[in-house]
Amino acid sequence: MPLPSDDETVPLPSDDETVPLPSDGDETVPLPSERETASVGSSGPAVVGSPVRRVLPRLTMANAMIAVLLALLGFTLVVQLKSNSTDASLENARQEDLVRILSDLDAQKERVRQDIEGLEESQRQLNSGAQGRQAALDEATRRADELGILAGTLAARGPGLTVSFMPVSNPIGASRVLDAVQELRGAGAEAMQIAGGDGATVRIVASTYFLDANGGISVSGRRLTGPYMIMVIGDPKTMQTALNIPGGVVASVSGDGGNVAIQEREVVDVTALSPPKDLQHARPVS
Amino acid sequence: MIAVLALFAGVLLGVWLDPTVPSALLPYLPIAVVAALDAVFGGVRAKLDGIFDDKQFVISFISNVLVAGIIVYLGDQLGVGGQLSTGVVVVLGVRIFGNVAAIRRHLFRA
């Protein structure tokens, strides 16, 4: 039965308010030892002060004290509740708890540091792998660019020459243009395009062919009319020398009744593109 | 009546001012609050018993708070602050329960 335990508090001498001195009932006397000290502490002033208390404006003084104390209680209660609800637990923790937490954190830090080391190691490995991959990618890109320029699928820019073929008495034949292209190739030309008099341009690649067409030439099926201008990227001096050798391109064109003007350029733009061809039979051997 | 009003005033003041507890007082404030609560419940009980005494209440209130604080301080110095404050809270809690039981018997006759 729960009731006896509840009623137990009544007979306990410590709990009983009427047990202490009748002059001042001790409100907070439950523990015997504490009651002794309390009664000793309070009996002294009580004896001396009992007549004074009757005389003094008891209501104002005592009630003011009680009011102040209770206001203080409410204040601290709220403050404590607030600080408890808002604080992280650390601020209220005791020293030994803090030491334990600190050692826990130290152990955790050690573990995490080892994790960091492992991760950094793997990062290094991955980085070196990535660097190798990046280098391979750069190399492949560079090769692709070179091959693109050679195959005519990429625009190119660099120092070189512009070679103009101007017909004077006879139109320029396709064989003369082909001679010039071969001569330029032999002199180390890296990218070439040929422009006709109407401004149409054709990239000159390995498979480009030149045919005589009526009143002009056909370059890989594209019909151009004179005057022609070849823009070529390569070493200007070598190419100029190659074109000007006795019995070479310049001499033979002049002999056929034409004129060749060679102009050295710091920057030549070869912008015409040759459409890439799908290979049907050849396969790379890796 | 005045006491209840003062309690409310204190609560409102605490809500309104929203102060932060200085760290030196942090371990003692909860204990002091519990000790003061004990004194207040004792006072209410004494009031209902008709033996309430102002001076007794004031002195028991202050001494409760001071003794609780001193015990916790001593415990902290001895390195058993956590256990001692737990003990103080247990003792004060038992007393509060006893006082509340007495108040309940007064109010509800049960």
From TrEMBL, chain B:
Pfam families linked: DUF1290
UniProt keyword annotations, A-Z: Cell membrane, Membrane, Transmembrane, Transmembrane helix
Transmembrane segments: 27-44, 56-74, 80-103
Membrane topology note: Multi-pass membrane protein
Localization (cell): Cell membrane
Keyword set includes ATP-binding: no
Family statement drawn from the similarity comment of this UniProt entry: Belongs to the sbp family.
Name assigned to this protein: Small basic family protein
Originating organism: Plantactinospora alkalitolerans
Organism ancestry: Bacteria, Bacillati, Actinomycetota, Actinomycetes, Micromonosporales
